[in-house]
Give the backbone structure.
Amino acid sequence: MTATTTAPGSADTAAVRRAIADTARPARPGRLATALTFGWRGMLKVKHVPEQLLDVTVTPVMFLLLFTYLFGGAIAGSTSAYLDYTLPGLLVMSVLFTTVYSGVSLNTDLTKGVVDRFRSLPIWRPAPLLGSLLGDSVRYVVAGTVIIVVGVALGYRPDGGVGGAVAALALVVVFSFGLSWVFSVLGLLLRSPNAVMNAGFMGIFPLTFLSNVFVDPATLPGPLQAFVDVNPISVLATASRSLMAGTPDGTAIAVSLAVAAALAAVFLPVTTRLYRSR
Amino acid sequence: MTAQPALAIEAVGLEKSFGDTRAVAGVDLAVPAGAIYGVLGPNGAGKTTTIRMLATLIAPDAGSARVLGHDVVTESDAVRGLVSLTGQLASVDEELTGRENLVLVGRLLGHRRAAARARADELLEAFGIADAAGRLVKHYSGGMRRRLDIAASLVVTPQLVFLDEPTTGLDPRSRNQVWEIARALAAAGTTILLCTQYLEEADQLADGIAVIDRGRVIAEGTPGQLKASVGTGSLHVRLLDPGRRAEAARVLGAAVGTVVLEPDPAALSAACADAERAAVGVGELGRAGLGVAGFSLDQPSLDEVFLALTGHAAEQHPSGTLEA
C-alpha cells in the first residue's frame, strides 16, 4: 500500500511508519526527575482548571468571614481579638481540607485508565504518587496564602511578621504531606471520587471542629476538653499560632512534625502497595 | 537489529481470580515475534485480565509468562521497558491536552524537554491530531482519543504493543484508521497482541488467533485453520439456464456434496470442504454441458466458528451494517 491518507483529522500511515522507524531509546530518567515530571502534570491540571483552587479556598474564606463577624464578638469580645486567635487555626483548616482533594484526584485517575499507562511504563513505581503530591503542595500553598492574605485584609497583623506567617504556612504544608497519604489510601480503597470526598470530609470536618481552631478549649466539658487537647489538629493549630505570634512553641512544632512523619510512615507504604496491586 | 527470541510471548497455565470469580483459568499462549496475534472472545472471557498479566499490571496467581524473553513477574521492569499498552479505557489523561499527554510520556521515558516536544509533534502530525494538539483530551472524539492513546504507546517505539479492544465504540472510519495503524506497526516488525471481541477485526488483522472463553483458550490457529476446523463452506453456482437446475444438482451432488437449491431459480449451492473439490465440481458442470454464469466459494465466517466452538454466539461489531 502506498496510498496515504492526508485528509485533516486522519492518521497518515506513511508518517506513522516513519515515526516508528526511529527505534532509539533515551536513557531512563532518575527517580527525582520522574517524580518532578508527575509534579509538572499536577501543575498543568491546576493551569487548565483553576476553578479547582476556588473549591478549596472558598470554604475556609467563608468560615473566616462567618466566624469572625458572626461569632467573633461573642466568643472573644471583639472581632479583631477573635481574628488574632482563629486565623492561624483557619490556616490549618484550609490547608488540611485541601489534602482531601489529593485522595479525590488519585481516585479520579484510577477511574480514568490513565493509571494503566503509568503502571505500564518503565518508571520508578512510587513516582506518580510522590509527583502528584508535589503538584498538590502548590494547592496547599495557595489555600494557605489566600487565608493569610484575606486575614491581613481584615486587619490581622501577626506579631511574628512575614517570617512567622511563612513559617506557620510551611509547617502546615509539611503536616499536610503526611496527612495526605491517609486520603490517598481512601482514594485507592473507595469506589468513586465522591465517596472519597464524603468519607474524607466526614473525618476531617469533626476533627477540625473538635480542636482549638475556633474556641479556647478551657470552656469545654472535661472529656471533650481531654479529646481536644490530644487532637493533633489542636497541636498543629497551637504550633501555627505560636509561629505567627513570633513565640515558637517547640513542643507543639515537634509533635506536629512527629505526627506527620508517623502518618507518612504508616500510610505511604500502604498507598504504594495498594497502587501497585489495583 | 537486536536479536529477538522466536516467541514474543510465551505463557503457560496463567491463572487469575478476583474473589470467587476465576477470570483466567489456565491460559497458554505462544505468540511468534513480529506477528499480529488475536485473542478473541466475548466480554468477560478473560482477555483483559490476560493482557494485564502479560503487561505486568497484575501478577498471575499461578502459571508463568515470558514476554520478549523476560519473566513478567521477576523481570517486570525489563518487560515494561520493551512493551506498550493501550488499555480498554483509553490510557490517556483527559485533563491534559493531546500534546501534553505525549510530552508527559516522552519525559517519563527519558526524553529531554526539546526531544519530547519534537517527538510529540511528529506523532500528533502522523496521527492526524495536530489541529487538536492544544485542546484538552476530554473534548476529543472517541476516534481521536484512541489515536492519541496509540500514539502515546509509540513515543518510544516498543518491540511489542498490547492493543486491548482498540476499536470498541469507534465509528467505521475511525476503526479503519486504527486497523491501518496496526498494520503499519506490524509491517515495521512490531509484535501486536490484539484483544478483541469482534470476529471481523481478528479476521482482518491477525496472523494467528487464540479463541478464549470463560478464562480458557478453546481453540488456536490461523483464521483459515479455525474456519476449516468447523468444517464446510459452500460452493455457490449460478447457471445460464435455470431450466437445467435439477440436472446440475445431480452433477454437483455426486462430485461435491449435499446440494441446496437457492431462492434464485438459476442458483444452487453445495457443501464443500475445500477449493480443489469446488474446482472439480465446476469442471464437472462444464463437462455435462451445463453453462455456468458464475460461481463462488464461501468459507464459514468466524461467527460460525465461534458458535461451533463455544455453543453460544459472539457479539457483533456495532458497525456490522458496514458492507465489507
Notes: Residues 79-112 of chain A form the longest helix (34 residues). Chain A touches chain B through 43 residues (CB under 8 Å). The CA atoms of residues 24 and 89 of chain A lie 54 Å apart. Chain A is about 80% helix and 0% strand.
